[in-house]
Amino acid sequence: MGEVMIENEEKLDKCTQNIKTLVRAIDIEFGNVTVNSGYRSVEHNNLIGGAKNSMHTTGMAVDISIPNVHVIKIASWLLYNIKKYPWTRMSINIFKNYIHVDEKKVKSIPEIHLYDRNNKWL
Ligand SMILES: [Zn+2]
């Protein structure tokens, strides 16, 4: 297996093992994954206007993007491949330029949500 190069991988340091494994699986599939945001302290989350009770503050969420790979393509791959992995509890939020993935605390089928650039539901 080749060396995995993930941009800003240090942002995963305080994320859960499931999130780390997930990002590495995406990177093995597509390459060039950029971690836009991983774990955030509550203070940092408030400072950047993150959602109250954001899963980023528990390390159970990650925002990623891949240059020249459409967010829908990444989300589709996740939906088709997620059943191979133990983290079937997940929510995939698709934004214009990145996707946010978080682990859900209760068992459920994967959820997918679409947002426009103003972060409203499509
Ligand atoms: Zn996020």
Tags for this model:
single chain; 122 residues; alpha+beta; Muramoyl-pentapeptide Carboxypeptidase, domain 2; five-stranded mixed sheet; 5 strands; 25% helix; 19% strand; binds zinc ion
Provide an overview of this structure:
The chain has 122 residues and is of the alpha+beta class. It has one domain (9-114): 2-Layer Sandwich (Muramoyl-pentapeptide Carboxypeptidase, domain 2). 25% of the residues lie in helices and 19% in strands. The chain has three helices and five strands. It has helices spanning 17-30, 42-47, 71-81, and strands spanning 34-37, 61-65, 90-94, 99-103, 111-114. The chain has a five-stranded mixed β-sheet, covered by helices on one side. A hairpin with a 4-residue loop joins strand 3 and strand 4 (99-103). The longest helix is centred in the first third of the chain and has 14 residues, at 17-30. The chain is globular, with a radius of gyration of 14 Å. The mean pLDDT is 85. Zinc ion is lined by residues 37, 56, 61, 63, 100.
Which helices and strands occur, and which strands form pairs?
Elements: H1 17-30, E1 34-37, H2 42-47, E2 61-65, H3 71-81, E3 90-94, E4 99-103, E5 111-114
Parallel strand pairs: 3-5
Antiparallel strand pairs: 1-2, 2-4, 3-4
Zinc ion binds near residues 37, 56, 61, 63 and 100.
Major sheet characteristics: 5 strands, mixed
Calculate Rg over CA atoms: 14 Å
Provide the β-strand percentage band: 15-25%
The side-by-side strand order for the widest beta sheet comes to 1-2-4-3-5
CATH class category: Alpha Beta
Count of alpha and pi helical runs: 3
